[in-house]
Here is the input.
Amino acid sequence: MMRLTTSWRPHQVCLRPLSPQAGHEVALKAWAQWCEQNAGSTCELALSGHWLITCAAPPEQALAQWDHYLGLNAIALEQGWVLRSVSMPSWSLSCAAPRALVDGLKNTAREHSVKLQWVGPWWARDAQRWLTALAKVPDPSSDEHTFNAMEAGLCTHLTVGLDGQGKRCLRQVWAEASDEAGLPEAVAPTQARTEQTRLDMAADTSLAPWPNPGSNTWQSGWADELDFAGPRVRTALWSWALLIMGVAACMAVAEQAQEATVAQAEAQAMLHRLERAKHQQTMARAAPRAASAAGLPTRQKLDEASTRQAAQVAQWLAYPWSAVIGRVEQSALQEQAVLTGFSLDISSLGAKLDARPPVRLQAALRDDASALRWVAAHGDGAQMLGRSALSAPFEAMTGHYALRAEATWPAGVQP
Here is the structure.
């Protein structure tokens, strides 16, 4: 609920060190207390100029100046600072804040579900208003215009002059220490080419509401790009309208797609019904001829070969195969043979009236004598096809088995 309430009008607070020599710890502690009291809200946080370094140049030129005056090379800047820059047609501005401070602010805000909507120099928006108003003056003057952002112990100056083409540009940005006991003295109102803004905060206060009277009429611009917690992309009003139009278009397309899917399903069902009706008609036309054609063979007599084959099949189906199998098993039991194969070939049925399909038997035996007795136990017509040594002899309770024998026996001959 707090996030929804402050999403349109976020809290605006300013953070500064109690003294120019103070570290980040006291300020981060004050920030943590504020986040705990305003958990789940949206906030715009302005930073004191004591923590910032600025230069009226693009990042490459700003780095060269910071390296020359502050000993801050590219590696040190990347590791210890968060850099943001603004590039306009006639001027550029670079600003950096300590990375430890920015990370501490973001981590604390995340712990308390506080959304940092903007974190930047406290004077950036006032400077933007000043530059915008100055650009509307029709007759540029060759004199310099100065903007002073004054806070306790520091004054940040921005100067605007004319470039080589006679256009106004931001020439220089610098900060200088002032009386630490309070704010610098105000500029005399007779200096028409000088404007100023002041950060009025108690000397013993690290965090206080941001006195930004123009926030209600604020228009986004280059000051939003100096966002150390972002940069954040602001959503324009027309983009919401475009989003709504896109959603409506998607809904319309989805409805049309659903109607097309239903129509396709109905068409496929109609096609299936027509194909089924056509198939039924084709079957109905072919049914009388098929019935008459099917009735002809019933009036014909089987030829002699077919009759003989049918009689032969019936004879063999009626044969007592269970007795034959029982006899085979009994013969194997008598000779203590281990049956390993039994097959019946009925491919010769119907070729001759007295054709008898052969039965092939395989068994493991102990010696040649038991193999011969096993074959003879099947009766007349039984023959041994061969015998050989087992590839893997084995021991059983009845003895040592090392021989494999194969025999054939006409199934029609009773044992």
About this structure: The longest strand covers residues 383-396. The chain has three domains: 2-234, 249-285, 320-410. Confidence is low (pLDDT under 50) at residues 232-238. The CA atoms of residues 110 and 116 lie 9 Å apart.
